[in-house]
């Protein structure tokens, strides 16, 4: 099925640095979700976005629903070692109820 | 509320066998979706059930099937297992599946030998 374009594919950063990743689609989405997945576990929801232009924070995480409704961004400020994991975006169109997933961004935080 | 639960967490099968995985959604959630996750393919959508009916189906062969019970619990079945079916199978639930947040279970790790 369709997958979203998520970048970067992987990131290696120093503890304390900020992180930015994004997700783009050729289709318009009405819902954007961001998840974090640890090895061998299911994805855990971080932030949900429902309106174009919406900016939502969850602690050090901030996500935005792109104004074109074809993209979304996730920022992590002042990264810490426990931020390590794979981050996925997911989008849902206005019609239908299937979620489409990004290919994931693998984050490594170097202490 | 309890989260999404999946059983079993780990499973080892041999080629040609069949397997049934179970998912209990969050209480009150009526939509259950199943995904296959592999390192090479990422998260691939299998199917979605709502009120005991399959509403959406991904691009998987007929060996993959599912069902949903009246209490919203769902099962997926894979028949005639192949080596390539080794993966993490994830189930996710939401209230109605429409414009809502989807919550994942911990997954079932299937290894086919």
Secondary-structure topology with pairs:
The complex is a heterodimer of chains A (111) and B (113).
Chain A: E1 5-7, E2 10-14, E3 19-24, E4 31-37, E5 44-49, E6 55-58, E7 61-65, E8 71-76, E9 85-92, E10 99-101, E11 105-110
Parallel strand pairs in A: 2-11
Antiparallel strand pairs in A: 1-3, 3-8, 4-5, 4-9, 6-7, 7-8, 9-10, 9-11
Chain B: E1 5-7, E2 10-13, E3 19-24, E4 31-38, E5 42-50, E6 53-57, E7 64-68, E8 74-78, E9 87-94, E10 103-104, E11 108-112
Parallel strand pairs in B: 2-11
Antiparallel strand pairs in B: 1-3, 3-8, 4-5, 4-9, 5-6, 7-8, 9-10, 9-11
Cα separation of the termini of chain A = 38 Å
Helicity level of chain A? under 10%
Largest interface: A-B, 26 and 31 residues
Poorly predicted tracts of residues of chain A: none
Please give the radius of gyration of chain A in angstroms: 13 Å
Query: Which structural class matches the secondary elements of chain A?
Result: mainly beta
Order of helices and strands of chain A: EEEEEEEEEEE
Task: Please state the overall shape of chain B, judged from the principal axes of the Cα atoms.
Answer: globular
Rounded mean pLDDT of chain B is 93
Question: What structural class should be given to the helix and strand makeup of chain B?
Answer: mainly beta
The global form of chain A is globular
In terms of quaternary structure, the protein is heterodimer
Q: What does the model show?
A:
The complex is a heterodimer of chains A (111) and B (113). Chain A has strands at 5-7, 10-14, 19-24, 31-37, 44-49, 55-58, 61-65, 71-76, 85-92, 99-101, 105-110. Chain A is mainly β. In chain A, the strands form two sheets. In chain A, strands 2, 4, 5, 9, 10 and 11 form a six-stranded mixed β-sheet that branches. Chain A has a five-stranded antiparallel β-sheet with strand order 1-3-8-7-6, with no helix packed on it. Chain A is globular, with a radius of gyration of 13 Å. With 113 residues, chain B is mainly beta. Chain B has strands at residues 5-7, 10-13, 19-24, 31-38, 42-50, 53-57, 64-68, 74-78, 87-94, 103-104, 108-112. In chain B, strand 4 (31-38) and strand 5 form a beta hairpin. Chain B is globular. The termini of chain B are far apart. The relative contact order of chain B is 0.33. At the A-B interface, strand 4, strand 5, strand 9 and strand 10 of A face strand 4, strand 5, strand 9 and strand 10 of B.
């Amino acid at each position: 099925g369709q997958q979203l374009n998520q970048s970067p594919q992987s990131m290696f950063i120093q503890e304390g640095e900020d992180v930015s990743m994004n997700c783009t689609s050729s289709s318009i989405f009405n819902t954007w979700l961001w998840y974090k997945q640890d090895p061998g576990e299911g994805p855990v929801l971080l932030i949900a976005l429902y309106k174009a232009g919406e900016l939502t924070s969850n602690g050090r995480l901030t996500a935005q629903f792109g104004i074109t409704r074809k993209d979304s961004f996730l920022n992590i400020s002042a990264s810490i070692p426990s931020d390590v994991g794979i981050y996925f975006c997911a989008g849902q169109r206005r019609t239908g109820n299937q979620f489409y997933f990004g290919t994931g961004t693998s984050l490594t935080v170097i202490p | 509320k309890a989260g999404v639960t999946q059983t079993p967490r780990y499973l080892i099968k041999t080629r040609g066998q069949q397997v049934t995985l179970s998912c209990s959604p969050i209480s009150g959630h009526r939509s259950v979706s199943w995904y296959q996750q592999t390192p090479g393919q990422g998260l691939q959508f299998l199917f979605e059930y709502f009120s005991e009916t399959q509403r959406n189906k991904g691009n998987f062969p007929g060996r993959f099937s599912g069902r949903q019970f009246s209490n919203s619990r769902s099962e997926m079945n894979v028949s005639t297992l192949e080596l390539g079916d080794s993966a993490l199978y994830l189930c996710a639930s939401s209230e109605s599946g429409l414009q809502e947040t989807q919550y994942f279970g911990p997954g079932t790790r299937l290894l086919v030998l």
